Amino acid sequence: MIVYHASYTEITAPDTSHSRKYLDFGPGFYVTIIPEQAVKYAERFSRRGKDAWINTYELSDNYSKRKVTKFEAYDERWLDYIMACRSGDIPDDADIIIGGIADDQIFRTVDLYFAGYISKQEALKRLVYTKPNMQICIRSQAVINDFLTFKSSKKL
Q1: What is the dihedral of CA 143, 146, 37, 106, to 10 degrees?
Q2: What would the DSSP string read from start to end of 52-116?
Q3: What is the pLDDT of residue 107?
Q4: Backbone phi, then psi, for 69, in 5-degree steps?
Q5: 42 within 8 A of 156, measured Cβ to Cβ
Q6: In which band, very low, low, confident or very high, does the pLDDT at 103 lie, cut at 50, 70 and 90?
Q7: Which residues are within 8 A (CB) of 34 and not within 5 positions of it... i.e. 6 or more apart?
Q8: Considering the entire predicted model, what is its pTM?
Q9: What is the rounded CA–CA span in Å between residue 50 and residue 31?
Q10: What pLDDT digit, counting tens, does each position of 120-138 carry?
Q11: Which of 29, 45, 127, 137 could disulfide-link to 97, CB 3.0 to 4.6 Å?
């Protein structure tokens, strides 16, 4: 499958070592199957005065033989996982995590819950009708090396 990664630079050799720690699914290399989502994220770099790049890769379907955690909805399981990862407490040893991204709208709800301003029930009520975007977090460098192939990059 073709996947996309937004960055301020071309990334021909992705790695997990440059990731920030407190992200939705913890540290890793994040990609999406939705090109418009990658472009939207890359535009954030442009707004900050940096270059914006879309890097394109092929992710082999053989990765499914590795440990995968998948979220189908913005539900309690997803919310608990996001909260744990953003606190630095990685809930499992999955090589790949697939699920919805906490975009601006979702992030506001998660942030309010994380700060204790709304309850878990209120957060879930706000999230229940939101269709998830898609992000794939590759936590394992071995998965990147074995299953992710750089195809091209484009400066926006």
Answers
A1: -10
A2: -EEEEEEE-GGGGGS-EEE--SSSHHHHHHHHHHHTT------SEEEE----HHHHHHHHHHHTT
A3: 75
A4: -110, 130
A5: yes
A6: low
A7: 4, 133, 134
A8: 0.86
A9: 20
A10: 888 888 877 666 678 999 9
A11: 137
